[in-house]
Amino acid sequence: MLHRLLTGIVFALAVVGCGPAAANSPSTPHTFAVDHGQFVLDGKPFQVISGEMHYQRVPRAYWRDRLRMARAMGLNSITTYVFWNLHEPKPGVYDFTGDNDVAEFLREAQQEGLYVVLRPGPYVCAEWEFGGYPAWLLKDRSMVIRSRDAKFMEAARSWLARLGKEVAGFQIANGGPVLTVQVENEYGTFGNDHEYMKEVRQALVDAGFSKTLFYTADGVEQVPNGSLPGVPIGINFGSGNARKSFADYKKNHPEGPYFNSEYWAGWFDHWGGKHAITDAKVQADELKWMLGQGYSVSMYMFHGGTSFGWMNGANTDGQNYEPDVTSYDYDAPLDESGRPTAKFSLFRDTIAAVTGVTPPAMPPVAAAIQIPKFSLNDSASLWKTLPTPVRSEQVKSMEDLDQSYGYILYRTQLKKEATGSLVIDDLHDYAQIYLDGRLAGTLDRRLGQKQVSLQLSTDSAQLDILVENTGRINFATMASTEVLRGERQGITKQVTLAGKALTGWQIYSLPMLNPASLVYSAVPCSGACFYRGNFELGEAGDTFLDTSGFTKGEVWLNGRALGRVWNIGPQKTLYVPASWLKKGSNEVVVFDLKGGNGRTLEGRDKPVLDAVSTHR
């Protein structure tokens, strides 16, 4: 056994630089399996050296560049999640175009000599909005998400079946790059229903993944809850925990295989928190140790990219709510814009030293550009652009109105005798409260705020509650399963004033889909407003829009939603890929809840992700 293992390590290290396109014809079928506790490719020991990169977090124009960077760091595989919510934005309506063209991503990975570890979920976590689930699942309040509930499983099976039509042909047994497919994701943290896990696995088989090697992934302590008989297990952990995690795993699984399915080579950021910086030297030393043992590794993240638009998730311990920023830089070897960091070089040298394989040269990266300061002279008040409302005695959530992201406005009329504490139960996630158009208070789910005192000075008043979805929770433990399953947005239960429930609402759905189509003017606008400006470019290049002059809202560039703005930091720039810019005139729209006249923007050649703010 020991001799076989050592022989396997030597062979695996010898072939680590070879990928599917480099070593094999793309149409030639191959096998990937487990034999005597080792991964074997075509019957020969193989060591997976992978890094995570999510195609939906990277502009399609840059996929090939990033994949070449992966090869240049010494990786032989790339790992990716599949985000259900972007592929099926409405029930039965699918999108596999543009940045969602997963088949093209797999094709390019193979062409660049990389195998693929595919993670289709249906739950993925990933600091992504609602863990990748589409928001429309929440409309049916009887559905029990992430369970064997028939309604949920029907939706999940339909989704996986449609995904299979796109990518099942890319299994390695069909000559494609997909080595292995994950069943669900870290389920052992959330539950222990093995029958549910079996149903997910069967749904994948039925979707066409009948020739693949499946695996499950959990923290070492959660493995008994989330694993399946006969299915290889990956273990997830962060820097400083490699030796202990593998030692603990071996106690119950001495037969292997040994696969670190997520090595957290960085971390993510929350609004109002600090930018994560991790110890690259510790990580390089652990990477060296794991590779030297012959273990397979997938670092999370190799390249984080960006949770563009509304796609950031949020964390919770069952009580606190912590929304993530737009940037998914993750302190990764490739930064948010795809530029190699010092960590990249350190990991590259480490992999080359252990494997004895010299990786390809690093491809060149064009320099980022600066954009001189420009003004946003045109504006449009939110209050003058409201759509037709839905009338309802009781409040409704976004999902009730078939809305997934953005804002929602609740309006009703108050009487003088109703003065007192306004209580919102439950607020998801951030609200500004207005009386007769004047801001009367702000409530923030992060801070546990649920009530504000109102004092009416007239016989009646119009009450407006403008609510923002700042990101549905993407991660929950066994203690907070119902939090994830009830993550509807807006006002999810009721509103009371002085202890009495308020009724008779006009509810405005504000998904913010196309703010460029609004009617703008040079008339000054303050408060909740859209601001529009233009800048000219002779040549396009990556840049970082400096949003430090704004308070809280969103930014669009040439019709694309870039991401969120919040003056509490730590993120104070938004990444703009060159492929989204154009020669000549480019249009920017900013929505700011507390906007004012005279605001400007500029493009920097470096991001600001670590700003310290005095705002809460």
Summarize the structure.
It contains 13 helices and 32 strands. It has 616 residues and is α+β, with helices and mostly antiparallel strands.
Proportion of helical residues: 10-25%
Mean pLDDT figure: 94
Q: What is the CATH superfamily label of the largest domain? A: Glycosidases
Q: Which CATH first-tier class of the largest domain would you pick?
A: Alpha Beta
- Poorly predicted segments: 1-18, 21-25
Shape: globular
How are the strands of the biggest sheet laid out side by side? 4-5-6-7-8-9-10-11
- The count of β-strands is 32
Structural class, by secondary structure, is alpha+beta
Largest sheet: 8 strands, parallel, barrel
Which percent range describes the beta-strand content? 25-35%
Rg is 25 Å
For the terminal residues, how far apart are their CA atoms?
58 Å
Number of helices: 13
CATH-derived topology of the largest domain: TIM Barrel
Number of domains: 3
CATH architectural group of the largest domain? Alpha-Beta Barrel
